[in-house]
Automatic annotation (TrEMBL), chains A, B, C, D:
It holds the Pfam family TetR_N. This is TetR family transcriptional regulator. One of its GO terms (molecular function) is DNA-binding transcription factor activity. Residues 40-59 bind DNA. Keywords: DNA-binding. InterPro entries: Homeodomain-like_sf, HTH-type_TetR-like_transc_reg, HTH_TetR, KstR2_TetR_C, Tet_transcr_reg_TetR-rel_C_sf. Residues 17-77 form the HTH tetR-type domain.
Length: 209, 209, 209, 209
DNA sequence: AATGAATGAGCGTTCATTCAT
DNA sequence: TATGAATGAACGCTCATTCAT
């Protein structure tokens, strides 16, 4: 059973050598709360229970810490989508369904990083930003391809597929903004609902009506 | 009958004048490009072609300039929605349609403020933030009410109306992020497409199929 | 008559608008005492009787303040030499004599800058450093040319003119390190003595023996 | 008879060892390149191929490493001068000649330390600085005494012996700034030339003309 | 004899803001 | 209506140094 002290979590004294992980965790929270420019490295270090200079032992700069966070998270998203697709049945409707489920899962599981990545990617320095924009575009392409397949096969009815896709991605992104992990809706339930929403958006008619 | 706009109340009219307008215009751009904390009032004053001190003649602080921008923009949104609703036919499907069209129109017309309001509202000081969150909730209520009406009247088929509404609002918000005013899609075309998307999201079947 | 308060000089409150001059004066002293890296801009601002941020109103950076100091001083030296040569009689011995006198005058008159320029020029950023090295080389060329003339005309007897020149310049440079402006030797006396030293170094025999 | 070196006393011998030697070598270079304050012990440790902490095994502080370097070098200078004087003929002109040759030899052989000692002695803490200033004064006395002897014996003709001495020392010091060990002039050649310069400076006429 | 991890003080710089005119 | 000059607080970061192993 967690003691009050353990619940305080990030305020507990950090074990020697565990500074890097504590900093990443603190950075996640502070960047999500205050944004890149609003977050000071003093805040982050303090929340991690470390001195300011310890941050520079683990990361070369605020920017590098920030980039490590996003890189890790976006990579995770892409791999989550990829894995989901590999196990999906080979119909567009099922592939779209698992893609959305993977996305919702990711938005809930890595809620803070999602918020950061959506809101703050412009604050990455060009080199890193390009890498992540590339990865993000690859994820977008997964959606685009599945939708295009569905239309080609006649199972999706959708005059402006890009609008549907953009709406769908925006809807999924927004989950991170309002979802309450302590609330009553489980991630799985939410994933199912958003999969239904997705099929509506692309005009898949058979199992919705 | 009091409109949603009137219910939300109003502030003293924003001070107008050559310098003030130049500052608001510059602030719009700089806040949108770099975010609240990333934007410095030196940048804003310079872009407005004014001295740093002049900014303090027009606005008491960075925060007030920021708030004025958002306030102005959110009021505009309400007026737009209100006007649209007043002229709409009295069916849920038509009311939802004009609501979405008004929203899209606003997102395109006030693109930069939209981006700012979506991304940076956390940087408002509590008093102002509460006002705007209130206004925003009022906007959300317009959608909620219309959707609830449609369901009650049996013209919308929608198991989780809150999810549909949130998806719809997120989709509309996102337009500001990708829409290119110099591109080929006109705001009216886009508004129509998103009205269709809205009706799909709420399960309005008659004039879509 | 100077009051005790006026003597304290740099500690007196600075008149509004006079910050730039006070900063240059303070920088002169602190850079000379502690070197470029040893001098902190907080020290400089404090000695100038200004806040740290005021320094940044007048100069864009520590480096720029430093460069302004050296630029001004080296320029002064070059002009001093040039002016002296224009009024000198046209014999090598007289030209060398006024050149040395001008140099001694400069080393005494701008003692602190001399120390800084000699010791710290490597701490200038390349662009500025190149400019100053160029100016310095021009001054060195004045010496080189005069000595070469004297040898060609047979009035100087000097097997290794570059060694003589380097020794002479080093001797003059060093004056800034030990000269006490409050001591008994006047700058003019010193200039005469060093002119004699110069003529010995180049082997000018007629009026020395 | 106690030599100047013995009079100045000596410190405990510097600790020797692989790591320590590598550190001193690295420190020599880095201090010479960037000055005391501009050199970081991280740079020094890295150039020595050791960890930062290892530096603290060998030296108690940056200051101690710095002092060890200068101490070592100045002691070397004294031994060089002493040895040279012991083998010199007992005339002022020969004693001055070997003193200058020893000095030039030292400036060339210990070029980097020479630069450091000349430029950075102010950065020594008082205790150490006093010791070295004392040693330096002892060196100056060697010159002063020889010159005074020469004047007393009538072989030097020199109205302001202190100016001659200061010029001579400055000229020798400066060698470290421009001498190129890979160039064409050997240290011995240079030593001869500077010995001639010295005799000119003090007005020794017989074997120069 | 050496290391990886951490610290507190201070660095140069920028920030939003205010003062005097 | 504006400006030029100044401020105190905070920023991201580096410093010499120490601790635990």
């Amino acid at each position: 059973m967690a003691t009050a002290f353990e619940k305080a979590g990030s305020l507990a004294p950090i074990q020697r050598g565990a500074g890097g992980a504590a900093l990443r965790e603190a950075a996640r929270e502070v960047f999500a709360e205050r944004g890149y420019h609003g977050a000071s490295i003093r805040d982050i270090a303090k929340r991690a229970g470390l001195s300011l200079s310890a941050l520079y032992y683990w990361y070369a700069s605020k920017q590098e810490l920030f980039a490590a966070l996003l890189e890790d998270s976006v990579q995770d998203y892409f791999e989550t989508c990829d894995a989901a697709l590999r196990e999906a049945a080979d119909t567009p409707q099922d592939r779209l369904r698992v893609l959305v489920q993977a996305t919702v899962d990711y938005r809930v599981r890595r809620r803070l990083e999602s918020i950061i990545a959506t809101r703050e990617i412009l604050n990455l320095e060009p080199a890193q930003a390009n890498r992540l924009v590339e990865l993000r575009r690859a994820a977008t392409d997964l959606f685009r391809d599945v939708i295009a397949d569905g239309i080609r096969q006649g199972v999706f009815d959708c005059e402006h597929p890009d609008d549907s896709r953009r709406s769908l991605e925006a809807a999924c992104n927004a989950i991170a903004d309002w979802y309450d992990p302590a609330g009553e809706i489980t991630a799985d339930q939410l994933a199912d609902r958003y999969a239904d929403i997705a099929l509506r958006l692309v005009g898949y008619t058979r199992n919705v009506q």
